[in-house]
TrEMBL record:
GO terms for biological process: polysaccharide biosynthetic process; UDP-glucuronate biosynthetic process. PANTHER family: UDP-GLUCOSE 6-DEHYDROGENASE TUAD. The active site is at C273 (nucleophile). Keywords: NAD, Oxidoreductase. It comes from the Archaea. Signal peptide: none annotated. Pathway: Nucleotide-sugar biosynthesis; UDP-alpha-D-glucuronate biosynthesis; UDP-alpha-D-glucuronate from UDP-alpha-D-glucose: step 1/1. Substrate binds at F160, L161, R162, E163, K217, F262, L263, R264, S265, G266, G270, K332. This is UDP-glucose 6-dehydrogenase. Coiled coil: none annotated. GO terms for molecular function: NAD binding; UDP-glucose 6-dehydrogenase activity. Its EC number is 1.1.1.22. It is an enzyme of class 1 (oxidoreductase).
Amino acid sequence: MYLSVIGSGYVGTTIAVCFAELGHDVVNVDIDQETVETLNGGEAPIHEDGLADLVAEHAGPNGTGRLRATTDYEAILETEATFLCLPTPQRDDGSIDLSIMRAGAASLGETLAAKDDRHTVIVKSTVIPRSTTDTIAPTVADAAGKTIGADLGVGMNPEFLREGSAVRDFLNPDKVVLGADDEQTRDVMAAVFEPLVERAGNPAVVETDTKTAEMIKYANNGFLATKISLINDIGNVCKEFGIDAYEVADAIGLDDRIGEQFLRSGLGWGGSCFPKDTNAIIAAAKAEGYDPTMLEAAVEVNEHQPKRLLELLDAHVDVAGKRVAVLGLAFKPGTDDVRNSRAVPVIERLAARGAEIVAYDPVAMENMRALDPDADIAYADSAADALDRANACVVVTDWDAFATLDEEFERMAEQVVVDGRRVVEPRRGMTYEGLTW
Ligand SMILES: NC(=O)C1=CN([C@@H]2O[C@H](COP(=O)(O)OP(=O)(O)OC[C@H]3O[C@@H](n4cnc5c(N)ncnc54)[C@H](O)[C@@H]3O)[C@@H](O)[C@H]2O)C=CC1
Ligand SMILES: O=C(O)[C@H]1O[C@H](OP(=O)(O)OP(=O)(O)OC[C@H]2O[C@@H](n3ccc(=O)[nH]c3=O)[C@H](O)[C@@H]2O)[C@H](O)[C@@H](O)[C@@H]1O
């Protein structure tokens, strides 16, 4: 099929190149000229394992030609279905901001006004229940001067990929959720995903309506975020008793009703989605008159973890005027994304204490510098350089590279290490504190 994907970020680029890999022809529409030129040059605009090879294979001068990018929405006219992969950030009050989705939907509708045959729009972005039917579909239809159902189908297909394993996750899903409110749209969505379902060994295909598909996404993220906050809450209890929360987690993970994944207690969750999606569904539920206590508690525990890390540091070092090494800036290993990274509140608290901050991350330093250009942070070329003459070290991201550090700690003025991610091996002469172990 000939598909269009609006938005070429972590999700849009990943699904566009994977759809090309699956045999579809794809045009990626983005407003960012640099992103478009990077893709058309056969290079990946984001750092994701396996993405660069697929982009080189399908886009650019030496590619199959199945993927191209443009800033021109008109390119959508020749396609059969369009995925909307636009940002759905949070407002200051935590509620979802659909303004970018509405802008993209309006541009899409204006373009579709010139199309004669039926077109299918598939919302990929994470949107609160009823957004597709009450906001996005009407915006497209009004701008196109078309009728939902007759000449316009609008469906919802939530995405579950994780950053750092985006390509692998998309090509090996545990489920494909097809949210549609009419059979014709559902059939088009099933046809789009048919090559993926076949290649991925027949994962579950969940066919439902659009608002249920929207909710499945929030429930998925809400459950995962709450699972992490629960193991962090239990981890904080363990710490008070001098118990290793990881030993406890290993044991309870053997119960297949709990499962061993997402039991790594520590600094908690960051990223572009868990924070905004938990806040968005909380705000949406409250607007409907229900107060989701558990989800609110998950957010509260998560916000507490950076504070606990600094309390452990304070117990060993008064960092005022002292050099503190921050190891890790990305919100998790395997990505250069710093959106809502736990490094941000940790660095804020260190700065508030008057510490001299020197940070290192294998790939995310440029993004952190761009996120907060005025921050008084020195950036080191290596973990060893960050540790040089430091009076303390806090570990924020569980990069594998930090697990092998050993004699580098000799360069510290004082070997005080507070580990937020259970990644550093304690060594002789080191004052080591684990956040929940
Ligand atoms: N990042 C992730 O791991 C996942 C994100 N999602 C959801 O997918 C959606 C997109 O997220 P990301 O890909 O992370 O966003 P992103 O910020 O990485 O990419 C968004 C892209 O849209 C482009 N854009 C903005 N306005 C536009 C417009 N009017 N027309 C065309 N392009 C426009 C931007 O230039 C950017 O390239 C969000 O709703 C997010 O919650 C869902 C699953 C995973
Ligand atoms: O909607 C999204 O954007 C995505 O959000 C998460 O994916 P992602 O945020 O990329 O990364 P995760 O691997 O889920 O980690 C999220 C955060 O939880 C933290 N985490 C994860 C696992 C764990 O055991 N403990 C823990 O603290 C990580 O450090 C990270 O800060 C979900 O896992 C994806 O399924 C979803 O599609």
